[in-house]
Amino acid sequence: MAKDAHKMAETAADVEAFLARVEPAERQADGRDVMAMMARLSGEPPALWGPSIIGFGRYHYRYDSGREGESCRIGFSPRKAELVFYLAGLEEADFVALGKHRRGKGCLYIKRLAGVDRAVLEALIVKSIAHMDATWPR
Fold first, then answer.
1. Where are the domains of the chain?
2. Is the predicted pLDDT of residue 91 greater than 60, yes or no?
3. Which residue, of 1, 29, 109, 118, is most buried by count of CB atoms within 10 Å of its CB?
4. What are 69's strand-pairing partners?
5. How far is CA 83 from the centre of its chain?
6. In what order do the strands lie in the sheet with 46-49?
7. What is the pLDDT of residues 41-63, one digit of tens each?
8. pTM for this entry
9. Alpha-carbon gap, residue 45 to 66, rounded angstroms
10. SS3 letters for 28-65?
11. What pLDDT, in 10s, does the model give residues 110-127?
12. What are the distances in angstroms from CA 53 to CA 10, 12, 48, 86, 134?
């Protein structure tokens, strides 16, 4: 999530205006649903991080190398091809019952919310928040 800290800075941009430009329409609707879900689960308001990540909460990280910065605690990006979730602290077994998805390092990719079990997705988000709270206390 914090690979390019300069690209991940929280901005003052209007999240609603950003979502209004998302295409296709289904991705925009899914983005609004995810935004509401993450806000409810995190207790944090949405903010735009960089040009296209909707993040919730913030944390300051410092690696053993000395590199440090700030990033959102959890977040997602409603990209044209799929929704990208930025979550941490999850294990292989956590994804078994999710439904159609793919994963990369620190990212979860979902083409359509309708294609996954939303209760499982919520559980993933809650587990990621707990991991962030344990690793980087507020």
1. 5-135
2. yes
3. 1
4. 61
5. 9
6. 46-49, 53-56, 74-78, 83-86, 107-110, 102-104
7. 999 999 999 999 999 999 998 88
8. 0.92
9. 30
10. HHHHHHHHHHHHHHHCCCEEEECCCEEEECCEEEECCC
11. 999 999 999 999 999 999
12. 9, 13, 6, 9, 23
Q: What are phi and psi of 127, to 5 degrees?
A: -65, -40
Whole-angstrom Cα distance, residue 26 to residue 63?
38
Please list, residue by residue across 41-58, b when 16 or more beta carbons sit within 10 angstroms of its beta carbon and e when fewer do: bbebebbbbbebbbbbbe
C-alpha angle 121/127/131, rounded to 5°?
145
By the 10 Å C-beta count (0-12 exposed, 13-18 middle, 19+ buried), 86 is classed as buried
Give the residue carrying structure tokens 């944090």: 44
